[in-house]
Write a structure and sequence with these properties.
The protein is mainly alpha-helical and about 210 residues long. It has seven helices and three strands; from the N terminus they run ααββααααβα. It has a three-stranded mixed sheet. The chain is globular.
Length: about 210
């Protein structure tokens, strides 16, 4: 699959899920207007490139960075803000490390190195943070920094590139996996807890 198609597919699936009554589980209480604004901004900015000296930047890179900063700004308490930022820094360093490891040792690649890296980032993000918007912010900060690290050591046709198709695919895959797996794990935990409680009550508390 060519780079860019995965993000389009996952964005389409997400829109269908949000319109089918899954909005609260996936994104909490955010309004429909803000969601539509985000998706519309993504569609436009994912194709618009700005050149700053020898750096090509897709505007979607700036969009993700801006939304992440807004979430961090609205987080309650300086300690909580620093905690979220530290998770983002960890994910960014891990993202860069995984990219380098998969490039250096192809034997680690099962199918697609970019997708493998995105899946690992999603699992680590779930372990560290399960609130939907804070998870979004941590993963996004990680990708913004990871792509910046990667672009800093690599040039394509004499330019450093930020926010291009592979970055978009990885971001969408990590976000989608993180939210879906979080929902599944929370539902499983709630089901197991309810089952244990019912068994305990059936046995008369013994």
């Amino acid at each position: 699959m060519n780079s860019g198609y995965l993000s389009f597919i996952l964005m389409s699936i997400t829109l269908i899920l949000l319109a089918s009554g899954w909005k609260t589980l996936y994104v909490g209480g955010v309004s429909h207007q803000r969601l539509l604004l985000f998706f519309a901004s993504w569609i436009v900015s994912a194709r618009v490139t700005v050149t700053l000296e020898n750096v090509h930047v897709r505007l979607v890179y700036a969009l993700i960075a801006a939304v992440s900063l807004i979430i961090l700004y609205r987080a309650q308490g300086i300690i909580h803000k620093v905690h979220l930022l530290s998770i983002g820094l960890l994910l960014g360093s891990l993202h860069f490390l995984l990219q380098q490891l998969l490039e250096m040792d192809p034997i680690l690649i099962i199918r697609n190195p970019a997708w493998e890296s995105a899946a690992i980032i999603a699992v680590v993000a779930i372990a560290l943070q399960r609130n939907c918007w804070e998870q979004f912010a941590a993963i996004s900060v990680g990708y913004v920094l990871g792509d910046l690290y990667q672009a800093g050591i690599r040039e394509i046709d004499g330019y450093h590139r930020l926010g291009y198709a592979t970055f978009q695919d990885q971001w969408w895959l990590s976000i989608f996996l993180a939210r879906t797996l979080t929902i599944v794990l929370q539902a499983t935990y709630a089901g197991c807890k309810s089952l244990v409680r019912s068994l305990f009550e059936r046995n008369g508390g013994r």
